[in-house]
Design brief:
Helices cover 41% and strands 21% of the residues. By secondary structure, it is α+β, with helices and mostly antiparallel strands. It has two domains: 4-100, Helix Hairpins (Orthogonal Bundle); 115-420, 2-Layer Sandwich (BirA Bifunctional Protein, domain 2). Helix 3 (26-58) runs antiparallel to helix 4 (64-100) and helix 6 packs across helix 13 (386-396). 42% of the residues are buried. The mean pLDDT is 93. It binds one RNA strand through residues 5, 39, 42-43, 45-47, 49-50, 52-53, 55-57, 59-61, 67, 70-75, 77-78, 92, 243, 366, 371, 373. L-serine binds at residues 230-232, 261, 284, 380, 382. This is Serine--tRNA ligase. It catalyses: tRNA(Sec) + L-serine + ATP = L-seryl-tRNA(Sec) + AMP + diphosphate + H(+); tRNA(Ser) + L-serine + ATP = L-seryl-tRNA(Ser) + AMP + diphosphate + H(+).
Length: 424
RNA sequence: GGAGGUGUCGCCUAGUCCGGUCUAUGGCGCCCGCCUGCUAAGCGGGUUUGGGGCUACAACCCCAUCGAGGGUUCAAAUCCCUCCACCUCCGCCA
């Protein structure tokens, strides 16, 4: 939710941000009108309520005939108060809905436009030239089969399309990546967390996943519970309804959880392998800090993501995601995309968003500052999404005989193995 | 899953049976001031959160807020219903 006061004071800034996202500014006018309506209804209710309280207070000491008179007046007043209250509740709800429909105000720096209007900020490393090396790279599905690491056939048999089993070195790789990621996070002051992957509607709603994104979310039948698509959801809701002490900021958490996604709009896309799946595990960084500090923290999250990819010796580029592709909550977003040899292109491996105070408002997370409380900023960033990272590692570090060289940083977590060898 | 109990403004707590004097008691902590070689103690005051009005987003006035949401009533912390969380016991279980 955007700042209602800022909307009232400077609606043109919000209109401009909507334009950068390629969205209509109608929601702005709807929200402003709803705000007017809301404040009028509040004034009406409060005036009647104050009068009712005044009269009510007189009743106990009143004489018999005074009492009868008072009772008659308060009785009709009570009905008025009730309807005024109902009107206020309705107006308040309309206002809230109108406000909730407005996405976070995109950063001035975020490129205008949609999905394809990103700006490449930098390119790190060079994609391997397999032609020069004299062999055709195998894709991760084949490598996964040769190494006994990924079993997509049985995944489909047991759970359906877009499911898989990680076996042997595949499972070992996930464990190793998790440990490497957690060690890096811990060294940088993150608290390691294993959060619940099932959450209530409030958590989903608060993080902005029940709007247009709702199609992609699994709901538990008859339970009022959702499977999270990222641990951003439980970690944002972790401090919901709390007033935090800013002297302890930034609060940094590194959460490991499964992620579940319906991938509703992606039929036919990435049908092979484990690039796009209904479930994967992920280590996610999540930070609570002040609005002022959030911009610098966003850069730090990006730096940590790059550090992790560097350790895995991957070639990647960093893009500044365009306003129209930010999603509901983000004010700015950077994606790290790794080179996938058999696809001949860069694919998103990690993503970091500054949600400023947008989620904090929805989830009522404030800090106690001089001069009162105010919403804090939340940020998130992928440290390691297992499946895609495994794809990138296998394809990038494969050798002509189908074996895979293990990046040095990962070796201590893989029992010292330097090479993953094909199984018989 | 079954039975019972509990939920009060940071923490603890009075109040709930018998609705109005609750603009919610007291203690601890914290903040400001006084006192004081210093510290401690003592004394006085303050200390939920959100919103509206008015405005310098000050002061002030008002409304809401006793786990959440409904209901009864002129009036609800107090009575009724639903939900949530926690505790105890039983059952089941990794």
């Amino acid at each position: 939710m955007i700042d209602p006061r800022a909307l009232r004071d400077d609606p043109d800034r919000v209109r401009a941000a909507q334009a950068r996202r390629g969205l209509s500014a109608d929601v702005v006018d709807t929200a402003l009108a709803a705000d007017e309506e809301r404040r009028t209804s509040i004034a009406d209710f409060e005036r009647l309520r104050a009068e009712q309280k005044q009269l009510s207070k007189q009743i106990p000491q009143a004489s018999a005939e005074q009492k009868a008179d008072l009772l008659a007046r308060t009785k009709t007043l009570a009905a008025d108060v009730k309807s005024a209250e109902a009107a206020q509740t309705a107006a308040e709800q309309d206002w809230r809905e109108a406000l909730m429909a407005i996405p976070n105000v995109a950063a001035e720096e975020a490129p205008a436009g949609g999905e394809d209007d990103y700006v490449v900020l930098e390119t790190v490393g060079t994609p391997r030239d397999f032609a020069a090396e004299g062999f055709e790279p195998r894709d991760h599905v084949e490598l996964g089969r040769i190494l006994g690491a990924i079993d997509v056939e049985r995944g489909a048999k047991v759970s359906g399309s877009r499911f898989y089993f990680l076996t042997g070195v595949g499972a070992d790789l996930e464990m190793a990546l998790t440990q490497l990621a957690m060690d890096q996070a811990r060294a940088n002051g993150f608290t390691t967390v294993i959060p619940p992957a099932l959450v209530r509607p409030r958590a989903m709603e608060g993080t902005g996943f029940l709007g247009q994104a709702a199609d992609d979310v699994y709901r538990i039948d008859g339970e009022d519970l959702y499977l999270v698509g990222t641990s951003e959801v439980p970690m944002a809701a972790y401090h919901s309804d709390e007033i935090l002490d800013p002297s302890r900021f930034p609060l940094r958490y590194a959460a490991f959880s499964p992620c579940y996604r319906k991938e509703a709009g992606s039929h036919g896309k990435d049908t092979k392998g484990i690039i796009r799946v209904h479930w994967f595990d992920k280590v996610e960084m999540f930070v609570y800090t002040t609005l002022e500090e959030s911009f610098a923290e966003h850069q730090r999250l990006l730096a940590w993501e790059k550090e992790f990819l560097d350790k895995l010796e991957l070639a990647y580029r960093v893009i500044d995601v365009a306003a129209g592709d930010l999603g509901l909550s983000a004010q700015r977003k950077f994606d790290c995309e790794a080179w996938i040899p058999t696809q001949g292109r860069y694919r998103e491996l990690t993503s970091t968003s500054n949600c400023t105070d947008f989620q904090a408002r929805r989830l009522d997370i404030r800090g106690r500052f001089e001069g009162g409380t105010s919403p804090v900023a939340t940020l998130n960033g992928t440290l390691c999404a297992m499946t895609r990272t495994i794809v990138a590692i296998l394809e990038t570090h494969q050798q002509a005989d189908g074996s895979v060289r293990v990046p040095e940083a990962l070796r201590p977590y893989l029992q010292g193995r330097e090479v993953l060898k094909p199984v018989e």
